[in-house]
Amino acid sequence: MFKDSNLNTEKLVESRPGKERIKIVQKIVLETQKLTKKFGGLIAVNNFDLKVNRGEISSLIGPNGAGKTTVFNVITGLYQADGGKVIFKGEDLAGKKPHRIITKGIARTFQNIRLFSNMTCLENVMAGQHCRSKEGTWSSIFRTSYQKKEESEIRKIAKRLLQQVGLWKFGDELAKNIAYGSQRMLEIARALATNPDLLVLDEPSSGLSDRESEDLMKFLKDLLKEEDLTILLIEHDMNVVMGISDWVTVMDEGKKIAEGVPEDIYRNSLVIEAYLGKEEEEEEI
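RE: above sequence
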């Protein structure tokens, strides 16, 4: 692999007997440029720049109210930006609705779990695949052979994903009846069912025990090894952030204040100040 540091590209050289084939791919899978979002007189996100490299785990962190979830909501189409751009795989996502953004290859989970509570775990994951379904309403009504074949394939993929997150034994259980930590993993499985290029996770370790957080970290690391996937997450647990991130971006009051590898962020004075506050200088008497 050869990387061009001046361009958002990588050259992948595939060798075969008698010939070589060069494939150009984008190094940056997601980028925001001067992203701005306002709510009345409040500027929640202010000229925010973010870059997410393909095949890496990137974390977006910051104190409460920094604007992190607002950035996620703009990226995934729940909010429309008031300024700037969201570029995904070279395409501007401006004006696109959430269901269109999913088909482009971005899937997300939420800080507050949003499952179909009265559907089984298997049905929840199957529902995630319908954005990729090719059969239409009439095929579903008349149960054509093509529709039956596609549904069988959807069920097979859902089973594989439930096995991957360790929940296949709960396949026939209603989502509302499984433990909170399992619901977190179920939501990730449903997001993966959309076959995303970018998985966006909002507080995935929220409410988890230390052991469950460790299991989550291992799962996400293994996931990147096994799948052609990129992960962007918001996370408050610094053990998780420092343990799995390739790159960390820090927000405060809607603006980017730092970015870098975890070790540099951990020692950054602006980041420490944003989280802990600035020490008040003692007044001389």
